[in-house]
Amino acid sequence: AQADLGILWALGKGGKRDFAQAREWFLKAARWGNTDAMFNLGIIYIFGHGVDEDPNQGRGWMVMAADKGHPGAMCSLGLIHGLGQKVPQDFHLARQWYTKAAELGFGPGHFYLGLMDARGQGGDKDLIKALMHFSLAQMLGDNRGAGTMAQLEKELSASEVAKAARMAKKW
After folding, report:
1. Three-state DSSP class for 152?
2. Which pLDDT belongs to residue 50?
3. Contact 40, 6 (CB under 8 A)
4. 75: number of CA atoms within 13 Å, CB side?
5. What interhelical angle do 71-83 and 91-103 show, nearest 10?
6. Alpha carbon distance 127, 14 (integer Å)
7. Distance from C-alpha of 116 to C-alpha of 141, rounded to nearest angstrom
8. Cα Dmax for the chain
9. What's the rounded Cα separation, in Å, for the pair 38 and 169?
10. Which of 52, 62, 59, 6 lies closest to 29 in space, CA to CA?
11. Per-residue model confidence as pLDDT tens digits over 20-46
């Protein structure tokens, strides 16, 4: 309930948006182990919503949430490291976070791994693995890679497309 109150304050539902109030409610919920609250505190501090921007503290909250199994925090950590947003760019670390999220069955983790494989970021360029990850993301409800998936299916041979499908079944 405390994390929900934080969301209401952060979004301005029922009144004026107030990140200071949101932060207080998120802190209370985080002390009880609420990973959504930890994740939201990470966002607040990384981007300076209602507080002084503090990427290190924000990343710390995100890591706490991710270490407790929050796949959204894992993907957000992948994003900030992959883009070099508020932290030094590190494709290998981004890949590690996306992989953790994907291993939990989180579609966005597969989507971002597909992008990284298609671009050769944090590892070798591998279009077959990219297709596998886009397929898994789509099966898990993340359709952002559908256009890229269709393009890859045209570029790859039939045996390569079949290999990607077999890899997806084994994942």
Report:
1. helix
2. 87
3. yes
4. 17
5. 160
6. 48
7. 19
8. 57
9. 34
10. 6
11. 888 888 999 999 999 999 999 999 999
CA–CA distance, 160 with 167 (Å, rounded to integer): 10
Contacts of 56 (CB under 8 A, 6+ apart): none
* Distance in angstroms (rounded) separating the CA atoms of residues 41 and 23: 7
| Tokens representing residue 32 in the block | 């009880």
Give start and end residues of each alpha helix (H) in 1-126: 2-11, 19-31, 35-47, 55-67, 71-83, 91-103, 107-119
Tell me the whole-structure pTM to 2 decimals.
0.89
Burial class (CB in 10 A: 0-12, 13-18, 19+), 42: buried
Q: Taking Cα atoms as reference points, which of 16, 56, 107 lies closest to residue 115?
A: 107
Residue 84 tokens, joined: 């070099």
